[in-house]
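Example S7 (structure tokens).
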């Protein structure tokens, strides 16, 4: 099976925000995700965080992330368009 790129998108209530980041102390993230960015919109009040990873088995990768974070995470197919390349500019 070929590796594909997926977005792992977590949405959580505001009350869980700090708890999700604290969770890593007890349930560390897998080293396979070292240096993968985990952006979030939490400072804006929309509690959404995500990472993008290449994998042959997204469900298996999902199974390796901390359980509370995993609980609110859905896997999505992922594609990127580049403005000025695949999207024309003026
Ligand atoms: Zn949050």
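Recovered sequence:
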């Amino acid at each position: 099976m070929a590796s594909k790129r997926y977005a792992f998108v977590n949405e959580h209530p505001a009350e869980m925000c700090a708890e999700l980041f604290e969770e890593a102390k007890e349930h560390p993230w897998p080293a396979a995700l070292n240096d993968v960015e985990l952006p979030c919109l939490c400072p804006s009040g929309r509690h959404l965080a995500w990472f993008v990873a290449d994998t042959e088995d997204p469900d298996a990768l999902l199974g390796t992330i901390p359980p509370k974070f995993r609980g609110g995470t859905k896997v999505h197919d992922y594609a990127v368009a580049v403005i000025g390349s695949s999207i024309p500019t003026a």
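Notes on this example. Residues 12, 17, 40, 42, 47 surround zinc ion (CB under 6 Å).
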